[in-house]
Amino acid sequence: MSAPSNFTVFPPRTATPLPLVFDSPHSGFELPADFAHQVTLDELKTGWDAFVDELWQPATQLGAWLLAAKASRMYIDLNRAPNDLDPALLAEPWPESLQPSRYSERGMGLIRRFALPGRPLYAAPLSVAAVQQRIRDYYQPYHRQLRTLLQDLHHRYGSVWHIDCHSMKSRGNAMNIDADTARPDIVLGDADGSSCDPDFTDCIQHSFQRLGYSVAVNHPYKGGHCVRAYGKPAQHFHSVQIEINRQLYMDEATFRKNHLFNGFQADLHQVSASIAEFIQAKLAKSDFALPS
């Protein structure tokens, strides 16, 4: 399988593109043929950021780029560091040093150990070669594309803004730090202010709040690998993670869109417009400018 088929790039649909990239690493649900899981399809879907790429796609009408993965994050999680791997998942020692994070400790690392609490994904450990293949064919191409988009836009405009798009269960489960707690409508993660200038986070927060949504910042999600790897505000790379409460647009039991979907998508378009205006104002004050 050719690597580019494992993700989709939606380019800007406007004559004046912006240095703005949305990426959705968990909205795909393709299950590769070698994915020998032992759980049900519905259990796999619980980790699916269903329709998140579709929700944000109208942002391309405002000049943004959108990158969306195709494979299920249960197969490989693109929002984890490549060495965030639980050694207990492996049939033999990994050839390089590993740095399993708290996500791996809870069964949600680069390769997930559990689909849900107490529900192991695999009946037997995975070979090193099988995991390396997932990294080579799925993880590396996605991050190569994301990195290229961000670097090219930064070179052209002097700054780039990146939004890592996710959805979250309306209540945490036993694998989450907020187990059995009702969640707000929106959670923004900027790694405690280290992945972007605070005015970018403020812009997004206020945009949602003006529309009546409840917003939390850095709890229970501070931002995963994507914002931490690419957010370098001192160098004018600004990254924020956005988590959307699934009950705002879908039925969590059936994994289908609900009657709120279209209205919520329209609200996200308004949020995207506010972000676009924010970026245009920033560029107007810099030595770089949008093409006339």
TrEMBL record:
Top-level taxon in the UniProt lineage: Bacteria
Pfam families in UniProt: FGase
Gene3D superfamilies: Zn-dependent exopeptidases
Identification of the protein by name: N-formylglutamate amidohydrolase
Organism annotation: Alkalimonas cellulosilytica
